Design the sequence.
């Protein structure tokens, strides 16, 4: 299922080397300003082109198929599509017999009985995050004053800004790097989320783990909390609005937003596609053999994830907002 | 909403100091052996009594209200209730005006307009995990050969087994400790999960973050992946069944189970209730004031979480199994 | 799945001859007055005892297990159970091999691999409507000023009130009668429901067809509309609030409530259990053979359905109200 | 929400006079033959052109955007779009102030705060059934040997085939006619559906009432059952496969398919758009005034509904099939 949300519902579709990718946003409120140029900034942030990102460049022009009339959402589902143009499917011809480590090639072939579109990862491709970012633009507008901001904390273990040498080294060696991101959402009122299964953390982590390459999600003090004492961890409430003196809880108590910033950190694995030869199973030969991956890839996909992470968090929050209004 | 799952659907209800807690498991297949004694082992594991756990002891005898006939599930919803017996509600009388830091007292009062049952945390209480463990017993039986096992890795930052001194110190100081847990699920076939929103990680993290006190969830190499290179992180496939030489992916590629063990680690915060006095807002006085928490509590709730974590993961996997059968 | 609703979510469980039946209402707003006596009137209306209804009499006292504190809903799930007391399971011993026509005996045995609780229809029993009526009481209170009222129009084809002779004749002959009901919901504001799949009619018919014995549902002019002209069928709007001069649409246009009364009619089949001998397949003998049904039954189940129909419609409307608030 | 289904999930989008209409089918199994020509027959059946149908003719060529590779479904979401070409939006300019009786103009404007696309009914238009029919084509293929067939029983109260004079009269008078349809689904195995809320009738009626203009749905003997005796209504089982001697139940007992044909009848109201002048509220003038509807319309929309009804029933059955496999 490629559907997320109970009231603000997002449906992704498309493939890396098919006609295109798209999204249908069902449940978006009526009356929100929405025109094609509104997508430009976030789509540009997601775009490749910077050092360490893939040389495959697409125009990525969204077509608003439905749900918008005279520059406003109508309350009907908003469908948006992006055409694929710059595809080189020949690059992927042998993935069926020799699946790439760290990719979905093997599981997709098995899960879908050999019918999956394997070209460029098909439906599993990171290109689908283009549609996710588009949905995120709508979610951010739906959220009104609630802001969602992501930043890169680390690349390959180095502080962001001090990572250039590591990145150059990885590129030179045909290797790739992981990264650590932070996301902060501000101005969330007290009371979003439900106890237990629809806790804020449950819904946010659900969609964040849908982003390709995410390996871990933590809120507030996160994994460090496992090593703390209660006297170090508890956030004293310091004002009647619920403001706390510290924010180790990351803005959530008992699954419910507490009026402080929602804070989370996300670990992104190193890009699975690397230039160096790898040993992995060759199903045609029936034995492990060397694989050399062709195609164009990001040396550090984490560099492009911030805007995707914002989109994911914004979608979860838009759903929470509508569920709690 | 206290509902999780699309085919194996779990519904929690109850309060810490009300009539009891319970669960309704809808979608459980027919023909599974299920009798009251089947719950004993896991309920015992969750029970308090060990050093560092609350002195509130309950019989915790499950009553199977429905969905079972002649020792087998019937395919109809299985409802189970646990009566509360050992409650001391007087302990919680002043939480309304002086909410406890790190608890849901404040958000519950605000979200539910002052109508929440505040006694012992009410519906937000960790006592609800009793019902979750009961549902987990059914999920484990539904899973057949798929096994789910949790262990404690660390308590308060110390390796489990070497943590006794830290724990005694915390107890003596009226303080509490966090903990780090691991969960491994074995024998999952290739192909469970969906690309993007219903990825294995999405569904598992969704329910794991419903466990009170969880601050972080990571799969496979987790946060360490952010500091790795692709050449260090990729798992080479070494056999036609999908077995990989390493398991940094934690058993999932592209959101789909790859036939290797599902592995995750979970950070549990230190128990919010501590014996030491805390400064926090007193709504009756309109200013920060000292709070001294009474009631009976765990010095390290993480010690009781392993079986709860197993239950949560088993429920997500049972749903995935039924969705993929 | 025994779950209905997206925000006001109802979960039924239980069996005719097991420990009892119950319901969990998830998503009920906080602050609604709710005490045990509030259920008495509707439960009494559902109760048997009148001419043409089963002599099985149960106390039907609801136990409010959760979600209520000091006489108000808390916002947490409300679980209610009813114990079974007056059961005679011996009456149903041979249903496994000789399933009753018009009942679920055969399909239940096949669907659930022989594990279904067959006593008195098990989970398929009309006794489950007890739990539905209890949920309906909560739904009606949630709806505030929106009222839901059902009446019997016909019994066995005779106008209600003129049906006594027919009913006596059916009872005397060991036979049963069907009935026709109407339900009207008033004071629904303009705008509930969604275009297409979550139209008011879609959601209402969904839950109304969950009532055992319902064979047809029509809104407004219903089946008569198939024989009308547009000039006879269209409802002219006569006021700015949306009030129409006629109400052939039954209160809904394009799936959305239009501010007029929601009106529907429901056909209830004659009780399947009849005293007269019937020819049907005997799986033990491998051939058609005579079946004589024992047990206690209603000669006209339609007589007890009005309050069940109100409950079903109220639940759908409560969900629509919360989704549209 | 424009989403239906739990495993075979259908999402409609689009408007009558916008860029186009479309559908995203999520959860379609992999390996189903699907090419553009497969849609031709059903789309042709839905097309207008026959006597009594609108003169607006569209090419209605489906573009398969995703989820199909080398002529087979891949298991990924299948998105299909149809471009609008033959639109005359000027025809609808005054609907905002003078909403048409029997249409959604008024409720759409109110529900969506004046932001709805009103041209040709916008998202509420019958043109959306084009996308529904496309989804139905996929559903029918997913169903394999289960067949779904609809026929027209009556037009304007006259037997189909004897209705021509009535139709000509209606056309001549600028009026419209309703119709009665039947749908039969064969080869459904025993056991689809769930007790209560996910009964076969619940799911089928849910989606059938999403078809614009449907006023009533009945299964098996339907409303006639309300006037029958149990001895007349019960279907004796006559073979071990579950075959019954009669089929008054319409193929369902206790909400579960019983192995016999699923049969339902559907009442379709007369087309709301008529040529004759109508009195209805004019919001610009603040009083009732005469409305003359321009635009191109069907004199009897029921004539085009059979293939839409098949699509709706097939979608519900495909979901039931996947849920029960």
Sequence:
């Amino acid at each position: 299922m490629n559907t997320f949300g109970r009231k603000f519902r997002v449906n992704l579709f498309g493939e890396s080397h098919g006609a295109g990718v798209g999204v249908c946003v069902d449940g978006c409120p009526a009356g929100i300003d929405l025109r094609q140029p509104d997508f430009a900034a976030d789509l540009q942030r997601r775009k490749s082109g910077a050092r360490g990102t893939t040389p495959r460049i697409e125009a990525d022009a969204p077509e608003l198929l439905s749900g918008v009339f005279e520059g406003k959402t109508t309350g009907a589902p908003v469908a948006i599509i992006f055409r694929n143009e710059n595809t080189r499917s020949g690059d992927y011809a042998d993935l069926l017999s020799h699946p790439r480590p760290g990719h979905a090639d093997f599981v997709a072939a098995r899960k879908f009985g050999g019918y999956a579109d394997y070209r460029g990862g098909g439906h599993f491709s990171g290109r689908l995050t283009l549609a996710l970012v588009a949905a995120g633009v709508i979610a951010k507008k739906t959220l009104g004053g609630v802001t969602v901001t992501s930043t890169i904390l680390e690349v390959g273990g180095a502080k962001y800004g001090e990572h250039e040498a590591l990145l150059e080294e990885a590129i030179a060696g045909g290797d790739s790097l992981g990264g650590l991101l932070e996301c902060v959402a501000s101005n969330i009122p007290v009371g979003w989320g439900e106890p237990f299964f629809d806790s804020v953390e449950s819904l946010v982590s659900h969609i964040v783990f849908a982003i390709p390459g995410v390996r871990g999600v933590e809120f507030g003090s996160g994994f460090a909390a496992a090593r703390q004492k209660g006297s170090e961890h508890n956030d004293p409430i310091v004002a009647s609005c619920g403001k706390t003196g510290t924010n180790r809880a990351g803005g959530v108590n008992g699954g419910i937003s507490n009026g402080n910033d929602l804070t989370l950190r996300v670990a992104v694995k190193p890009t699975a596609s690397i230039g160096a030869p790898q040993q992995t199973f060759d199903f045609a030969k029936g034995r492990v053999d060397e694989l050399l991956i062709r195609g164009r890839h990001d040396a550090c996909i984490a560099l492009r994830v911030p805007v995707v992470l914002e989109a994911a968090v914004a979608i979860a929050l838009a759903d929470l907002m509508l569920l709690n209004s």
Notes: Chain D has a mean pLDDT of 94. The interface with chain A takes residues 1-3, 7, 9, 11-15, 18-22, 24, 26-27, 30-31, 63-67, 69, 72-79, 81, 111-117, 122-123 of chain D (CB under 8 Å). Residues 11 and 162 of chain D are 38 Å apart (CA to CA).
